[in-house]
Amino acid sequence: MARRVVLSDSELAAGTLSPRAEEFLVWLGAERGRSKNTLAAYRRDLTAYEDWLRERGSTVLTVAADELIVFVNQRKASGLAASTVARQQAAVRMLHRYLATEEIRPDDPTAALDGVKVPSGIPKPLTEAQVTSLLDAVTGYDPVARRDRALLELLYATGARISEAVGLSLGDLDLDTGLVRLFGKGSKERIVPFGSAAARALGEWLAPSGRGALEPLRWKSRDAAEAFFVNQRGGRLTRQGAWLVLTKYGRLAGIETHLSPHVLRHSCATHLLDHGADLRIVQELLGHASISTTQVYTKVSQERLWEVYRTAHPRAVADG
To answer: Which of 123, 129, 124, 97 is nearest to 110 (CA)?
Structure first.
């Protein structure tokens, strides 16, 4: 009978997570309820971390605090964005905290590690004119055009996250009441209204010549059959697919600024505040757990207010 060869952590191939890290990810999903996307991000960050340790002949069980300082400093010096380094450091911290709590390792070498300061960037929303151009770029009434128009109108009308939009099922939306049920982070449910423009686009998509025309003879799965937004292959529209929809029409509309699904979320929040919406209401609509997250958008509105004032007021800028 052949003996099973058990490799030590330092002998594992590059790109392979140690059993301890794998156990940690299982724990994150089962005990902490982290989403698949979050777990995938942690896996990437921890794989890079353990590859770095192997190159130094170290492991998560033997790494010392001073080595972790070197790891973080090298990440900073590599040109990575501060937010990326902070995210990677957070993954490493959580792993070592888990190892210490479960007594897999007697200490936590990240305990004295300084955090990475991330600049509080202000999101750059589209102007209302740019949003109009983006939505008007969807022309025609074939099934794909109807779907794309409905998706973009819904994202702007509700400020939904892209994952919330593509995760919609047919029963989550009511055209008669103009309400949609969204499931945010941690599967938290909220009910959000949408206006007449979005309702019209959504109704056209749900017509037999819209979604009905993309229905396959046989659905790939029950989930696909219940999906609100579907692709041309009979499956649920993915986040990547929705991203391609947005970038396609952004190019057609001539929008040169960075465009992502989250920009429409920023734009929805900013335009609501520009037109007098209460901050607490916007917090509820966006599904923010903390009001401080929503307050970022007040800074955007103030910046835009100052831009208009400096341009329009005759004495806003003193003569040199």
So the answer is: 97
Residue 185 is a catalytic residue: yes
Q: How many residues does the chain have?
A: 320
Q: Which residue blocks in 238-290 are alpha helix, DSSP H?
A: 239-252, 261-274, 279-286
Q: What is the pLDDT of residue 233?
A: 87
Catalytic residue among 34, 147, 149, 265: 265
- Please state, as a whole number, how many other Cβ atoms lie within 10 Å of the Cβ of residue 260: 13
181: β partners: 191
- Domain segments of the chain as ranges: 9-101, 128-312
Q: Single out the catalytic residue among 75, 149, 161, 271.
A: 161
Per-residue pLDDT reduced to its tens digit, 224-253: 899 999 999 889 999 889 989 999 999 999
pLDDT on residue 6 = 36
Structure tokens at 155: 């994202």
Whether 82 has a pLDDT exceeding 80, the answer reads no
Catalytic, 297? Answer yes
- pLDDT tops 80 at residue 54: yes
In degrees rounded to 5, what are phi and psi of residue 147? -65, -45
Question: In which band, very low, low, confident or very high, does the pLDDT at 259 lie, cut at 50, 70 and 90?
Answer: confident
Top-level class of domain 128-312: mainly alpha
Residue closest to 68 by CA, chosen among 23, 29, 116: 116
182-186, 210-214, 295-299: which range is least confident on average? 295-299
* Architecture category of domain 9-101 in CATH: Orthogonal Bundle (1.10)
Q: Which of 43, 97, 181, 262 is catalytic?
A: 262
Place of tokens 């790109």: 15
Residue 288 annotated to the active site:
yes
